[in-house]
Amino acid sequence: MHIPNTLFQIEYKLTLDLLQVEWPAYGSFSTPEFEYAMEHLLDTLRLYDIPRLLLDARSMATIPNTPDHLDLGIRFVQALETTRVRKVARLVADTASRDWQMRQLTGEEGISYQFQTFVRQEVALAWLKA
Fold this sequence. Notes:
It is built from 4 helices and 6 strands. The protein is α/β, with parallel strands linked by helices. A 6-stranded mixed beta sheet has the order 1-2-3-4-5-6, sandwiched between helices. Helix 1 (31-48) runs parallel beside helix 2.
């Protein structure tokens, strides 16, 4: 089921109880646009009470390192704590360059949900279903 959003491509897969989100390339949106779309995404997770999230970030060619983008990432990671999400799989083109970013975003205290980065969608879906 497609769920409209101004920035993200969102599909709810009812049989898997999974929300699949295509993450936009950084630089293709403004901070207020992202904040609005992120709130809508979080509201969707809460409304449907979804425990699994698949973030497809393969379209991101570069990793932003600006304070604004890092702050947005931190707020998103923290906001997921207010949902029923228990597993988050992120699809990337290259896992080596992204693992440090998640550790930076989660901080020392960690997060209450499981998080894993993958290159192949089939592997990510298998992990989410397990």
